[in-house]
């Protein structure tokens, strides 16, 4: 996957036009491929030639339809460094990488803080790797917030979604007994294959569950309330998603401490405010994926010219996994 530095730099120098998917509220799916200015990296940023990027639910539900016209959205992308950071940090030119940023991923070129860049093993398919940053990064770091999980019990709500599927795999890899909560019983076999030891499809069943040491909570609303009720003493619930769009109403007594349920905590989480060490985490996740030990669950892969239709598929929940788009020519 490492490309010759001379040819890379030459190709970028000759590229007078950079194209990107930009927000256009007059276009189908609010997206259009347009010509944009070259990214201008700061000294702590590397310039990346994007090969593939992935779509996330938050992007297609909120960022694109609500975003400012003319901007380039996108959090996750994988590609090759064409210009290393001027301050000497991060990978060298020619290195295959996976990247995270607040925007700019859906383009032929993006500038990325080196703290948010992970290296990718030579020869790895960059398509599945591009699905890692937001979903796998959130899952991994939510599990870190719970603490040691070897031999402990972990509950994952919204287990059939992008973050949930990674959380199941990583929690099982970490030695936890994993319970998956899903509203769709048809997903049970697939979730067991990813590492779930038991499946819960009825929130009322959580009242009778053996108390858990940690929760990766991705739904919000009634799911958060029920999952918090399943926590053991000193347990931690990490609220890393809110796909329900519902508020939480804890019944009287739910937050009381007693001999069996004291010191239970709720921690909120947002990946882009947790950049320290993230590049190393992305490097580790990419290596697992390249070795076939972590499955990004790519259910849709197509050319980036099909972004609007791919986003529509995600919005309608017809994609049972991640959606990856490949940039033309790569």
TrEMBL record:
<feature type="domain" description="Enoyl reductase (ER)">
    <location>
        <begin position="26"/>
        <end position="325"/>
    </location>
</feature>
<keyword id="KW-0732">Signal</keyword>
<feature type="signal peptide">
    <location>
        <begin position="1"/>
        <end position="20"/>
    </location>
</feature>
<dbReference type="InterPro" id="IPR051397">
    <property type="entry name" value="Zn-ADH-like_protein"/>
</dbReference>
<dbReference type="GO" id="GO:0016491">
    <property type="term" value="F:oxidoreductase activity"/>
</dbReference>
<dbReference type="InterPro" id="IPR020843">
    <property type="entry name" value="ER"/>
</dbReference>
<dbReference type="Pfam" id="PF00107">
    <property type="entry name" value="ADH_zinc_N"/>
</dbReference>
<dbReference type="Pfam" id="PF08240">
    <property type="entry name" value="ADH_N"/>
</dbReference>
<dbReference type="InterPro" id="IPR013149">
    <property type="entry name" value="ADH-like_C"/>
</dbReference>
<dbReference type="InterPro" id="IPR011032">
    <property type="entry name" value="GroES-like_sf"/>
</dbReference>
<dbReference type="InterPro" id="IPR036291">
    <property type="entry name" value="NAD(P)-bd_dom_sf"/>
</dbReference>
<dbReference type="InterPro" id="IPR013154">
    <property type="entry name" value="ADH-like_N"/>
</dbReference>
<protein>
    <submittedName>
        <fullName>Oxidoreductase</fullName>
    </submittedName>
</protein>
